[in-house]
Amino acid sequence: MPVFSVLVRGVLHQAGPGQVKVQQMRVAIVGAGIAGLTVAHQLLKKNHQVTVFERDEPGGLAGGVPFPGIDGVYLDKYYHHIFRDDGEIIRLIQEYGLESDLTWLASRSGIFAQGRSWPFGTPRDLLACSPVGSLWQRLLMGWNLLYFQRKSDWRQLDGTRCHEFFERRGNAAGYKNLWEPLLKMKFADAFPKLNFLIIPRSALNLTCDFAAHEDSLSPTG
């Protein structure tokens, strides 16, 4: 069973009848997704009485569904993963004693362009990926991502749009070839207004790990 489903069971068990002594408020939460259950978890720790209402299976999009024909294997309802520096969810998993259910795997990412798949998991892959642009644009892309990754105060870039960040750093062509198509597919007409910080820090080193439950399928892209 996926880790998130185990967390769901744990939080719902805490919220069961007689489990919490009422000292402050009685709280109703609509929706037993990861957000609703996390709120319930925090309120229960403060000795509030919590009732979670959910019309479907608990877990929401953070849950999993059985993979047909293979016992014990689950697929995510919605694409999600965690990185090693996702401290909040990792601490929540540890709080429930579930860290042994995580297996950290090296990610294998790629992009499809010019009629073929291009590996895109290491700095060397970036330099070899000609669809990003000229060699100079690929070098600039690597330098700019490294710059952001090592920037100690990300708040200085808050309010900077994605295209503005790369344009100001001479990397407009690289942005247009690499990031713009991805952002356009995900955010449609809103993509020009996206804050640069939508690009996760941990996704910029091109050597990220992701976590998957040991009984789940391991995505490769």
Shape: globular
Count of structural domains: 2
What radius of gyration results from the CA coordinates? Answer: 21 Å
Biggest β-sheet strands, sense, barrel: 2 strands, parallel
Give me the count of strands.
Answer: 8
Order of helices and strands: HEHEEEHEEEHHHHE
Instruction: State which percent range the strand residues make up.
Output: 15-25%
Terminal Cα span: 22 Å
Helix content: 25-40%
Average predicted confidence as pLDDT: 77
Number of helices: 7
Strand sequence of the main sheet, in spatial order?
1-2
Structural class: alpha+beta
Can you tell me the residue ranges where pLDDT is under 50 for at least 5 consecutive residues? 1-10, 205-221
Description:
By secondary structure, the chain is an alpha+beta fold. The chain has 2 domains: 3-107, no CATH class; 110-203, no CATH class. 35% of the residues lie in helices and 15% in strands. It is built from 7 helices and 8 strands; from the N terminus they run αβαβββαβββααααβ. The protein has helices at residues 3-14, 34-45, 87-95, 123-128, 135-149, 162-168, 172-187; strands at 26-30, 49-53, 64-66, 74-76, 102-106, 110-113, 116-119, 209-213. Strands 1-2 form a two-stranded parallel sheet. A two-stranded antiparallel sheet has the order 3-4. Helix 1 (3-14) packs across helix 2. It is globular and about 60 Å long. It starts with a helix and ends in an 8-residue tail after the last strand. The model is unreliable at 1-10 and 205-221 (pLDDT under 50).
